[in-house]
Amino acid sequence: MARLSIPKTYKLYIGGKFPRSESGHTFEVVTPQGKFLANAAKASRKDARDAVASARSAQAGFAGLTAYNRGQILYRIAEVLEGRRDQFVDEIRASEGVNAQAAARQVEHAIDTWVWYAGFADKYAQVAGNGNPVAGPYFNLSTPEATGVVVALAPAGAKGESLLGLSAVLAPIMTSGNATVLLAHPTQPLSAISFAEVLATSDVPAGVVNILTGDPEPLMPWLAAHADVNALDLSGGSASDWVAWQSDAAETLKRVVPPTVGIPARSLERIVAFTETKTVWHTKALG
Amino acid sequence: MSFLDYAPAPESTAILNLQKSYGLFIGGEFVDGHGSSFATISPSTEKAITTVAEATEADIDRAVAAARKAYDKTWSRMSGSERGKYLFRIARILQERSRELAVAESLDNGKPIRETRDVDIPLVAAWFFYYAGWADKLDYAGLGPNPQALGVAAQIIPWNFPLLMLAWKIAPALAAGNTVVLKPAETTPLTALLFAEICQQAELPAGVVNIVTGAGKTGAALVAHPDINKVAFTGSTPVGRRIAQTLAGSSTRVTLELGGKGANIIFEDAAIDQAIEGVVSGIFFNQGHVCCAGSRLLVQENIHDDVVSRLQRRLSTLRLGDPLDKNTDIGAVNSKAQLARITELANSGDDEGAHRWSAACEIPSKGFWFPPTVFTDVHTSHRIAREEIFGPVLSVMTFRTPDEAVAKANNTPYGLSAGIWTEKASRMLAIADKLRAGVIWANTFNKFDPASPFGGYKESGYGREGGRQGLFPYLESSGWTKGGR
């Protein structure tokens, strides 16, 4: 007799823990053909509030790590992801309906994305910052640093690509030391939750990344207006009424990156988009 | 006559050659507007200086069309080195006419001639010189090869540094290859109109710079115009919010330079006399009409009484009066409305239990004036500790530990500027790391330079002005993420 398998309960990821939604609500995740795959947690506004609070409390510490250390943490994510390659390939095949080869390509691309950004953690400030030759006896230096707490919508490509989509937005946000509330793609949440397991077993401090599954629509107006959120990455929002969210975000003058078509490419610009340039002047004198 | 009384030394206004009325500067010429006109007054005397036009929506249409035509037909086709040469020309003419511009600025704005002559106008020329050199070197700015201009930029500037804010806006926009429609503040249009004459003297191609005067309604029409590619605004946070809302979802790029509530932190080991000078220039420079003003003074508890008494002694030597007098330290508040706002907020300080001290100075009978004022016993919850006053009013608070200083300094929705006074460099750098502000002055304050990026965190806006970062809001590279940069 065949052995009965043990299906996983898919939960949220907040503050380094895996809670169910406080609302008790779940939703069905199905294959492209409509076949039941799993019940996933449907995050509520209260869950979103908890996620912002844990992101805020983790942010300063994460930004305060040395850039070298942050680079190592991002590289560690790539290592753990590589170790769980087969798990992601299986999950992507089931949920996105692609063949093993395409699923493997996506996982490999995602791993390489983490490696690429890991290597930028201790370099982007050299490329995006500089000394300034001011007309006076002053030391003057401009350096970019993390903007704070970012709410990001994971995008998906034409064929799903949910793991690659979340990696392409999350990695550049983390590179400079931001904390993130990531809203998983609404119909492709499984990679995101399994990715939370990668984060939990890497060296990422609790709260630096928080992942919510479910429907982003009721959460976003509230997150866009949240006074303790500094920026919105609407990369995955092209199918939604994202203009209203950008307008909500204007109330607290958040930085907003508008939706992209498909999966965003790796770029320095995506790192810099979630930074602030700080310029420090100091007097120079011999005496 | 005590040693502090100086004989009057007024700068003559004979250097000015003003028109009785000014139209709008569109397509390289002054043209009549379709709307009514209004007087711009001198805030120190309340006398009218000249009359300017209030641009209507039809006028804005005309100005944007002129800028679009100049962009398509001339400016976008010109080589960077030729564009740069026009900017160098403008910089030179600004230097040649600097005294005239300083007088006009002090007359229209109310700020002391010492500041317009020694700070504002020299920086205006420096800004054009700096960006002139970028025009043919954009490949080196850091956006990859061959970055592209955006098109027509709509620029709206405030009344606190009228011509300097114009330079901050126009110089990088033109260097990057954009054309502009700029609206000066309704209370300080004069130097922008003189700048239009300078564009004519420099033979800048028609329509590259267009100046439209008017108030908030004119500005709103400009921001909402469908044929602009970029909005750059310096002003209040509420207006900045409205602009961000108006442009949500549009491909128009936005940079916002908004309010602040800067903290100036003095540690017990600071060089106190230098710190006092820094505090004075931090909040009493330009009558406190500075978005990056150090309006909250955080003093280590054990030196509080000493700092406050030295500060009061120093403030008692400041001379308030005629902005055109070369001995004047504190000029007039820019408008009646601003004076009312400063007065109201200062009164809230009394009502909420803070202790007010004002320098004893004679207030002229005409014009708008507010004496240098220091509030002690201020709590972080008081309105004078939270809201931007934009006037010569300092709120003093104390701290015991560096962590407490950082927490109090960052306890504001703004994040534009901060100051640190300590002789210990390692502490200065550690504190600078933790402060959430775009510009940090250590053992100095309120220094500006075209090579140095300026701009805020959080609700102080987004984007930087100055330095190579100051070009980015006016350029597009294929890889650069749109929006909010």
How would you describe the overall organization of this protein?
The complex is a heterodimer of chains A (about 290) and B (about 475). Chain A is an alpha/beta fold and about 290 residues long. Chain A contains 10 helices and 10 strands. The longest helix of chain A is centred in the first third of the chain and has 20 residues, at about 45-65. Chain A is globular, with a radius of gyration of 20 Å. Mean pLDDT of chain B is about 95; it is low at about 480-485. Chain B contains 14 helices and 20 strands. With about 475 residues, chain B is an alpha/beta fold. Chain B has helices spanning about 55-75, 80-95, 100-110, 115-135, 160-175, 190-200, 215-225, 235-245, 270-285, 305-315, 335-350, 385, 400-410, 425-435, and strands at about 20, 25, 30, 35-40, 50-55, 150, 150-155, 180-185, 210, 230-235, 255, 265, 295-300, 355-360, 375, 395-400, 415-420, 440, 460, 475. Chain B is globular, with a radius of gyration of 22 Å. Chains A and B meet through strand 4, helix 9, strand 9, helix 10 and strand 10 of A and helix 8, helix 14, strand 18 and strand 19 of B. Strand 10 of chain A pairs parallel with strand 18 of chain B.
Brief summary:
The complex is a heterodimer of chains A (287) and B (485). The termini of chain A are far apart. Chain A contains ten helices and ten strands.
Distance between the termini of chain B: 56 Å
Please list the strands of the largest sheet of chain A in the order they lie side by side. Answer: 7-6-5-8-9
Query: In percent, how helical is the residue content of chain B?
Result: 25-40%
Rounded to an integer, what's the Rg of chain B over CA atoms? 22 Å
Overall outline of chain B:
globular
SSE string of chain A, helices as H and strands as E: EEHHHHHEEEHEHEHEHEHE
- Helical segment count of chain B: 14
**What is the CA-atom radius of gyration of chain A, in angstroms?**
20 Å
Largest interface here, residues on each chain?
A: A-B, 42 and 51 residues
Strand content of chain A: 15-25%
Poorly predicted sequence stretches spanning 5 or more consecutive residues of chain B: 480-485
End-to-end Cα distance of chain A: 88 Å
Task: Provide mean pLDDT of chain A, rounded.
Answer: 96
User: Number of DSSP strands of chain B?
Assistant: 20
The number of helical segments of chain A is 10
Main-sheet strand order of chain B equals 14-15-16-13-12-17-18
Strand percentage of chain B, roughly? 15-25%
